[in-house]
Structure formats: C-alpha cells, structure tokens
Amino acid sequence: xxxxxxxxxxxxxxxxxxxxxxxxxxxxxxxxxxxxxxxxxxxxxxxxxxxxxxxxxxxxxxxxxxxxxxxxxxxxxxxxxxxxxxxxxxxxxxxxxxxxxxxxxxxxxxxxxxxxxxxxxxxxxxxxxxxxxxxxxxxxxxxxxxxxxxxxxxxxxxxxxxxxxxxxxxxxxxxxxxxxxxxxxxxxxxxxxxxxxxxxxxxxxxxxxxxxxxxxxxxxxxxxxxxxxxxxxxxxxxxxxxxxxxxxxxxxxxx
Length: 255
Ligand SMILES: [Zn+2]
Hints:
The chain contains seven helices and ten strands. The model has no long low-confidence stretch (mean pLDDT 96). The protein has helices at residues 4-17, 39-46, 121-127, 141-148, 155-160, 170-180, 193-212; strands at residues 23-28, 53-57, 60-64, 69-73, 78-83, 92-98, 103-108, 114-118, 237-242, 245-250. The chain has two domains: 4-127, MutM-like, N-terminal (N-terminal domain of MutM-like DNA repair proteins, Alpha-Beta Barrel); 141-250, Helicase, Ruva Protein, domain 3. The protein is 29% helix and 22% strand. A four-stranded antiparallel β-sheet has the order 1-6-7-5, with helices on one face. A four-stranded antiparallel β-sheet has the order 2-3-4-8, with helices on both faces. The protein starts with a helix and ends in a 5-residue tail after the last strand. It is an alpha+beta fold. Helix 1 runs parallel beside helix 7, helix 4 packs across helix 7 (193-212) and helix 6 crosses helix 7. Zinc ion binds at residues 230, 232-233, 235, 250, 252-253.
C-alpha cells in the first residue's frame, strides 16, 4: 500500500514525465475513481492546459495546471504509468493524453484511490485536518512536540490518523515504533521527552532511507513474521490486530 515514500516516488515520476506539456485529452475510463469532480469538469478544466509543477503532502499528490490542482491519492493499489505505445496498464482509470502522443495513466485495480480537483492544496490540507508532512524542512521537533501535546490514546492510532503527521501508514508506523522501542498500544501522553524526540528523528531517517533506496539493517519491515527473533535484542516478534491493522512488534525491547 503506497505510503509517504511511495507517493514521493510517484511525485518525482510525475515531475520527470508530465510537466510542461499540453494535455490534449483527459480520457476517463472509470468514473468511479473520481472524487467530488464530475467527469466533464475534470476534462474541460485540464484539457488545453499543461501541468506546471507538482508537490506532495503526506500521501497526496497535487499537480498545478494553472486553473486549479489535480489531486491524486493512491489508495491501496494506485500507480502511475507514462507510455507512448499501446493501451497502457490494464487497470487504467484516467489517462492524460499529451500533445506529442505520450500518455500518463492513473491505474488502480482496487479503486481505493482518488482522482480529484482542488482549488488550493493548502486549504484542502487544512480542511482535511492533515498534520504536517514529516519531510517538510520547516517542520521542527518543537512543532512535533506541540502537535503531540497532551493527546490521549495509543501512539500507533495517533501516528496512523494523519492528524499528527501526514503520510505514515501501517508498515512505517510499525517500523518507527520498533526502532524507537515503543509498544504500539502505549499512550501518547505517557511518552517521555526523549521518546518524542526519538520518534521525530527516527521517522525522518526511516522515510529518507526508503526514498533514497539506502540499505535497511535490522528493520522489522523485512521480517514481519510471528515468532521471528528480534535482531536487536533476541526477543520474539508478536502479531496482533491493533486498531484494525495487522501489527508486529518485539515483545522484549518495545515497552
Ligand atoms: Zn527486540
């Protein structure tokens, strides 16, 4: 399932292929993928224009076309494909045809993704109550402390909610809690100052390691298996459904 690092890759892919070219046609193959926008509006507002820039916030991609922004959310199986020949991917839902004949398809087998228009990404982010993007260079430890504040509830649920920070899903939250030694059900308000700092620093390190394709050493990411031995401490990995998601943690060093 695409989380922040994967959506960052889609954003770079979009930037590398789809900017500064006139969109001749927006082909809607399956209107069920659309958010609030009507098919005719998506077409009439984008056709004849070009995408000029693209940005990401959490798991959302926003592409500026001068008269608004395209918003893409990749759900569980969303993907982008740029191609010149043939029909394109089997599960293409919306295909942008450029002047030179190249195409960019948004594909999504499971249909949990969304193609939509927004007038202003910042207003959208605020309206949705999304937290800061963890990789925003202006986002500081102080901001993160303030956002956690005296929030109650389990840290895993809070990190997954998109309200504290935007972009983390099940896999990266498990990784973050594993690497910082925090039990998924621990209450956020009981975290020490050092633990909050560790969460902030480690969150950025995990995400940039994934984005840069650097080697992962001793990550739980690569061994999500009940009963597996913890490479950090020799403890045992446990699996349970926590807040509706399959969760792995070490029974010894995560407290
Ligand atoms: Zn351990």
